[in-house]
């Protein structure tokens, strides 16, 4: 009866040669430096150093045991999404990495729960790959929060979300492809400010774009990184909806009416921030997420929940486990 972590990532050590298996172009590659370390490369540039906790199930399971984690949702690293490629290329990439995810999770199918990626720039192909992945053993899908300039209220993306609602496929939304500039390319500012802003923007798009008015409430939807800055600025959002309906009054109901339509993870690190999430969304809408195994993640997993004295035992159990079971449909 341990913790369920809904936000972790994998990288396969058996990285496919995408230029051969998909087509010519600038693709990320993996430089394997040893049995335990590798470097994700973008062309000739080093993108991220990783360890064997990205691909070795035994290492992951040992870390899970140390942190009291019973199950992990294992999702793609957003760099894999390939939304900037053609739909046909993105389908091939998705199939390759989705099949590799199954291999990584195979040693512990009751504990390592794979989520698939889909070619979201091609909604019809995304629906097909989601169905294939679920039939192959995946438990859900992870998507990026936008495809170029198309946010989650784009008609094609809404079609995909409706498909997931009809099929009972949980969807985990992860921020990615944050804008860069001389101001944002310092100090990991794209990750420290861009990620929260991206997630906030996409939740707003779901509300003001009328998506929650068109997609069935059965859609199980969750956002990474605590929903970004959304909870902190809900009051400003609500005020703007009421004061300037001529500009933003698109949704059928005020923003606060949709708070039960999505969940967020708990990887906000500070009990005060977690309290804001719980006070805003309710304890039923928050699940443990760690961003394992990346260095900006939380270890031990669930630490902020355990340190939050304002939560009672029922709320802690909900956040540590029960809400994730509901999200996963178990």
TrEMBL record:
Signal peptide range in chain numbering: none
Gene3D superfamilies, sorted: Metal-dependent hydrolases
Domain Amidohydrolase-related residues, every copy: 4-330
Cited SUPFAM superfamilies: Metallo-dependent hydrolases
UniProt keyword annotations, A-Z: Decarboxylase, Lyase, Metal-binding, Zinc
Keyword rRNA processing included in the entry's annotation: no
The protein's annotated pathway: Secondary metabolite metabolism; quinolate metabolism
Pfam families: Amidohydro_2
InterPro entries found in the cross-reference section: ACMSD, Amidohydro-rel, Metal_Hydrolase
EC number: 4.1.1.45
Subunit structure: Monomer.
Family designation: Belongs to the metallo-dependent hydrolases superfamily. ACMSD family.
Protein name as it appears in the record: 2-amino-3-carboxymuconate-6-semialdehyde decarboxylase
């Amino acid at each position: 009866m341990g913790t369920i972590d809904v936000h972790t990532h994998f990288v396969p050590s058996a990285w496919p040669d995408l230029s051969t298996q998909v087509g010519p172009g600038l693709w990320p590659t993996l430089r394997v430096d040893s049995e335990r370390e590798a470097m994700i490369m973008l062309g000739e540039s080093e993108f991220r150093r990783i360890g064997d906790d990205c691909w070795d199930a035994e290492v992951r399971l040992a870390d899970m045991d140390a942190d009291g984690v019973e199950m992990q949702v294992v999702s793609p690293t957003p760099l894999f999404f390939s939304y900037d490629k053609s739909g046909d290329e993105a389908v091939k990439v998705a199939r390759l990495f989705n099949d590799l995810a199954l291999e990584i999770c195979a040693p512990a199918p009751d504990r390592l729960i794979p989520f698939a990626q889909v070619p979201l720039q091609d909604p019809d192909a995304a629906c097909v790959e989601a169905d294939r992945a679920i039939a192959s053993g995946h438990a859900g899908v992870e998507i990026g929060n936008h495809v170029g300039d198309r946010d989650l209220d784009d008609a094609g993306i809404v079609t995909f979300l409706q498909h997931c609602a009809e099929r009972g496929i949980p969807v985990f939304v992860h921020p990615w492809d944050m804008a860069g500039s001389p101001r944002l390319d310092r100090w990991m500012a794209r990750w420290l400010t861009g990620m929260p802003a991206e997630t906030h923007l996409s939740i707003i798009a779901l509300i003001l774009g009328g998506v929650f008015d068109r997609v069935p409430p059965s859609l199980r939807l969750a956002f990474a990184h605590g929903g970004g800055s959304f909870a902190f600025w809900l009051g400003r959002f609500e005020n703007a909806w009421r004061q300037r309906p001529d500009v933003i009054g698109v949704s059928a109901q005020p923003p606060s009416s949709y708070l039960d339509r999505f969940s967020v993870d708990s990887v906000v690190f500070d009990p005060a921030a977690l309290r804001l999430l719980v006070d805003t969304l309710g304890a039923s809408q928050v699940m443990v997420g760690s961003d394992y195994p990346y260095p900006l993640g939380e270890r031990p997993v669930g630490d902020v929940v355990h340190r939050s004295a304002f939560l009672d035992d029922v709320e802690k159990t909900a956040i540590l486990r029960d809400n994730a079971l509901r999200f996963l449909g178990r």
